[in-house]
DNA sequence: CTACGGTGAATTAACGATACGTCACCTAAG
DNA sequence: CTTAGGTGACGTATCGTTAATTCACCGTAG
């Protein structure tokens, strides 16, 4: 509860000096002895600056918002780490929200839109939010950076198309020909991955299968595999768009008596720790999520400083295949 | 960028009236016509209140902090929902942090400790944080509520001991006698669950096995199973303390050629969506995490209002066994 | 002896929102 | 006719911090 005025009184100086000590301001000078007295007083009274007053005065809060679609999606683990780390480097704090809280008129949106709450917004997969919410967000006076391709504001993204290519190419190299593509929800990223799959298939002179069960999560994977088995020619391999859908693919395969990888090879996009612990352990394309988080924060700080943000697709590191046990070579026909 | 003063000027009233319209203050009255003019002006100028100024004036931010140990732990999914929902009901916003960001001297802690950032703190498993951090937090002038048993400040908790009992009792009823208890990290909750296991074993006249592989996550489960097989008499059933460790138990069982549930029954504590999609699907004790979140928020608001928080263990709903495929009855010996 | 520059600090005006105290005006009761 | 009370609104201090401006003092050069 101690304020700068209390410090000033105890140290026998003015608040200006206290503020100057705190901020290392060169404008207001003081002797070393005075500075020491002030610091002593701050420690004695256990002084903690009032962020609200600072924010008001400086028109800057030191907080950025990070809005994700499903917070409990394990692919965000490293993204979060990257964002927190980069924000900490810049002296910032992160206000985390998820899609649940992003309904139009919700407390979270209202607060985000107010001045003096955050200095900028990092948003992932903005196509998943209400149009109303997005319109409101765009009217926000502070910068917004998308962690996904975006038409109408700055963005950085991982190379989703490349991930689709890598997974498909890997299966092609294992001599698979009947490869299907399963799962993924409606975001741009998910379509990009399918695009990568399509391109590789076509380049190999094969007909890409339609995008099956474009939903999200475990159930979409199970549904997708069942749908795939209805196709004229049963697939020998599957690219799973959303990694958690891979869990569903494995479960459905087990339920249907299909052995993985002997009768069906599975490759997931996005690697999470869980994949290592499934049986069979799932071969997956690791995406640079940590770096995406860092790049997002740094880009946002550029925008906040009034500079343009270069943005674009993160090229370093590239998506990388982590080979485990869920995919194997097809014997020659 | 429009402030109340801008609204006041445009509507031809004083800022006092604008504020009154905004807050529905009865103190400053106005005619319906005036109110309408003010509202019109607010819409025209796209007015958004400045939270920093409000916080400063009111000495209240409308934000509460929620600090969790591992944000990506799926057991938090429903806890988060409960917290967000209850906070929204109270008109509050949630600032989410995880243990990563809770190092002493970190940006997050510093900000949390400052005035004018949050009105209260909800913390889970506070034994997992640095002593330094906890000491700092406790010196925080705003209320802290633990979502876990705590000695030195208010708390609410789920019934961890009961969960251990339920899992163990279930296996005992299936005629299992050699039941081990695996995994769990160092928190109080984890010890309570082991206690529940111990009690049930002793009540059945059996010798409880030592608490194996008291770590966290998938690997702890795998390690625990391997350790269990070193015991003089191999177990026929396992209670898994942390649910994600169940994934590791299943993987190790597969690797060792042990069939689940035919040769080994597995019951997990804490139910998450993933369990339904593993093969075999994992029988687990569902804990009322959503309600824990709600109870935590409501308790915290009580504390913030200066009232005592009843706290204690959440009795309704009770932990509930969700029977799936990973446990089966033991044939009579 | 005076003017001047440098040092070390105090005063004060914002930042935007809120709520207390005040006030002008009008109506109706005494 | 006076006045109490109700209605509708204004002025302003305040929250804690920052930074621009101002100021007092002292040593030294002219």
From TrEMBL, chains A, B:
Claim: Lipid biosynthesis is one of the keywords in the record: no
Molecular function terms, GO-annotated: DNA-binding transcription factor activity; transcription cis-regulatory region binding
Signal peptide start-end: none
Gene3D superfamilies xref list: 3.40.50.2300, lambda repressor-like DNA-binding domains
PROSITE patterns: HTH_LACI_2
Keyword DNA-binding carried by entry: yes
InterPro entries: HTH_LacI, LacI/GalR-like_sensor, Lambda_DNA-bd_dom_sf, Peripla_BP_I
Occurrences of domain HTH lacI-type (ranges): 2-58
Keyword field: DNA-binding, Transcription, Transcription regulation
Name of protein: LacI family transcriptional regulator
Species of the source: Kribbella caucasensis
